[in-house]
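Following up on my earlier thread - several people asked me to post the actual chain instead of describing it. Fair enough. Here it is, all 157 residues.
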Amino acid sequence: MGKKYYFLGSVENSKLVKIIQVIFGILCFAVAIYWLSFNVRSLKTDRTLWITIIFLVGFGFYQIWSGLGRATRFIEISSDKIRLKKTVLLPFVDLTREEIEKIEIFPFNLKFFLKSGETSILRLSSSYYETNAAIKDAIIDFAELNSISIELKEEKI
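Reply from S.P.:
Thanks for posting it. Predicted structure:
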């Protein structure tokens, strides 16, 4: 079984889009610094200025982070481990075949029960159902290859 890589969101952006994101993030930082230095006297009285600066810095950080490819959510399945990046800001997590006790597959969730007693839940998108089906098939293949217990479950409303 070779490595299978799936995006958990929209398709990867082109290099041009990534460059524009980084430039836009730098511009947001520059505007925040300009506002901070230009309005330094009024910062004590105007809280909306602080909110604006914090928003610009946060949004600029996210744009740069995304433009550098660090905000991509994905699942990578190989023969001996599963690599998950579930959130935009946190790093990826490796789940080795030795760590996984059981996997439950729901229509829009995957639950990984680890031998340590922890549970890792991967939420799938309702928009990319073709990708969800491919991910589920790859997880089933991984579980069968590594003799991991797997359950297909239906969610009841």
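The CA atoms of residues 81 and 96 lie 4 Å apart. That should answer part of your original question.
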